[in-house]
Amino acid sequence: MVEKIGDTHFHWIYATLHFMKHRIMAIVLAFVFLAVGMPLFSAPETGSVNYYASMMDDEAYAGLLKYVFDGGDLDGVADLYFALESHMADSDYEDWMKAAALGRAGLICGRYAEQCGDESQAADFMEMADGHIAEAKELGAPESATGVLEALSLSFWYLIDGSLSKGMKFPGMVDKLYKAHPEDFHVLLLEADRYLHSPGIAGGNKKKGLALFQEAEIIMDRDGAAIWDRFSIYSGLAVGYDKAKEKEKAGYYALKAAEIYTADETVNELVEKYT
Question: What are the b/e assignments for 231-263, b being 16+ CB within 10 Å?
Answer without folding.
Answer: bbbbbbbbbbbbeeeeeebbbbbbbbbbebbee
